[in-house]
Amino acid sequence: MARDARWDALLELVGRHGRVEVEEAAAALAVSAATIRRDLDQLAEQHLLTRTRGGAVAHGVSYELALRYKTGRHAPEKQAIGRAVSELVAVGEVVGLTGGTTVTEVARALAVRPDVVGETAGTGGPPTLTVVTNALNIASELAIRPQIKMVVTGGVARPQSYELTGPLAVGVMNEITLDIAVLGVNAIDLERGAYVHHEGEASVNRLLAERAQRVVVAADSSKIGRRAFARVCDFGRIDVLVTDSRVPAAAKERLGEAGVQVVTV
Asked: Least enclosed by CB within 10 Å: which of 13, 30, 78, 203?
């Protein structure tokens, strides 16, 4: 197993259980205990976990994987969700995108849509889409697309998610109007709504939703029925949830009762 794959697996174990033991991880990943110890030491040096005697633990209850280690998790589902969400956006609209791996797939799908690219893209005409985002990684991917007008909020960057937060981001969001906002979330509590790990991201994402005519949540089914630290919005603010086909029937029914249209891919 390659190092990056081991690191992703180790961080997944820590995120799921709050801790990992060297011997158990070595057996699960079919590598030596010495390899696991070295991996944990290197992850601890990057402040992604805390080393303990015999293993490692998460930093706290709101443990969050850095974005670069979340890219491969549920990748086919996220790509399918990204394509489905992109089809909900009409040419000429102003689109708000939060950060996160699933919303990144939405941005990538929009960037290659034939009616967005078009034969006249980049010829000096009006943009086919205007995208507003507080995610640096999304902005860097879309900024090279001449057919897309790219607007980036200000703010302070979070290294875990590449999202800009704080008063500068809020100041920009207060001055704009969106046709559609696409939210990435860490959890969907079936009683309370959409949540993320960080209160700063929650604040900006909530404002993004408030400035939009339509709100779409893009989240794979592993997020449904979970809880995280900071609430973004309740179900009254969400129009559509796009998720994968493994969403439990009971959860889909509950979301429908709350007025959320559930689209599965």
From this structure: 30
* pLDDT attached to residue 229: 87
Long-range (24+ apart) CB contacts under 8 A made by 167-173 are: 169/134, 169/204, 170/203, 170/204, 170/207, 172/132, 173/204, 173/207, 173/208, 173/211
Written as one letter, the residue type at 9 is: A
d(CA 254, CA 94): 30
**What is the tens place of the pLDDT at every residue in 154-167?**
999 987 789 999 99
Which residues lie below 8 Å from residue 32, measured CB to CB, with a gap of 6+?
A: 26
